[in-house]
Amino acid sequence: MSATVINGKDLAQELRNNMKEEVSELKEKGIIPHLTVILVGDNPASKSYVNGKKKASEETGIVSDIIELPVSTTEEELLNLIKELNQDVSVHGILVQLPLPEHIKEEHIIETIIPSKDVDGFHPINIGRMMTGNDSLLPCTPYGIVTMLKSRNITIQGKHAVVIGRSNIVGKPVGQLLLNENATVTYCHSKTRNLKEHTTRADILIVAIGIPNVINRDHLKQDAVVIDVGINRTDNGSLTGDVDFESAKSKASYITPVPRGVGPMTIAMLLKNTIKAAKGLSIN
Ligand code: NDP
């Protein structure tokens, strides 16, 4: 038996179609959801991500602008721009594309974005609210992963979820969201001993490492659900995940591909957060 592939691209399209209706309803009430993305420097991968976000926003009816700043921008200049956008009532979501040049401290930037416009869901207040189970803007990739599981009615409650990776943007928050959904969660990372001992006990395995094809069928429990977050560029320029897809597919019950897996869902959740932020402002 071969696993069912969860196509994130199709699911993201479906979500965007639903969001289009939500955006038109907001527009009828005079609220035009507006996302501002700031890009510092000319990292080609970041440029392409930012353009993807703009395109998806516009497809949904969300107004989106990209502010491109030179690599020489100082931290103070960037902080001042964010403070202006925080005050601008026409802007509902602010996203600063990471990574930033080394002379700018990411945490200073993240902590300056007002939490109600933090559509990436990285501000410590949003992370804290997520941890305490309160309403917040959720980090997009983890939110997309849980949405993918729910879209296939995959039971999370009572399941053993193993997360490989403990970054602040993927590993840690996805484990927390799964815990909020009543999974039993194990975190693994580069210092974990006997990785396979943990992964072979996973009903749901989330892989967010950033090394191509490190996980294969030998790491899996029979019929595990495998979510591959990794995005790695191969020598020929194509993208590949952290999971050896063909090998894992022969043992898993569900699996996500790379590309067309978690990536498009991350963008869809960014749009969802922007709409949520726009609705929030209308209430305040
Ligand atoms: P980080 O580099 O911040 O984190 C990688 C994690 O993997 C770390 O916790 C590290 O452990 C762990 N790790 C490294 N090597 C091993 C190993 N051999 N065994 C077990 N654990 C290991 O990466 P991110 O979390 O930011 O991203 C992970 C991947 O996901 C990347 O490929 C990235 O491109 C992709 N990504 C995809 C997104 C999407 O939308 N699909 C969004 C964001 C990221 P330690 O903490 O000990 O160093």
From TrEMBL:
Lineage summary: Bacteria, Bacillati, Bacillota, Bacilli, Bacillales
Q: In which pathway does it act?
A: One-carbon metabolism; tetrahydrofolate interconversion
Q: Does the keyword Membrane apply?
A: no
Q: What is this protein called?
A: Bifunctional protein FolD
What is the native source organism of this protein? Virgibacillus tibetensis
- Matches recorded under PROSITE patterns: THF_DHG_CYH_1 (PS00766)
Tetrahydrofolate dehydrogenase/cyclohydrolase NAD(P)-binding domain location: 139-279
Question: Which residues make up the binding site for NADP(+)?
Answer: G165, R166, S167, I231
> Which residues constitute the signal peptide according to the record?
none
* HAMAP family xref list: THF_DHG_CYH
Q: Show the catalytic activity.
A: (6R)-5,10-methenyltetrahydrofolate + H2O = (6R)-10-formyltetrahydrofolate + H(+); (6R)-5,10-methylene-5,6,7,8-tetrahydrofolate + NADP(+) = (6R)-5,10-methenyltetrahydrofolate + NADPH
Oligomer and partners: Homodimer.
Domain Tetrahydrofolate dehydrogenase/cyclohydrolase catalytic positions: 6-120
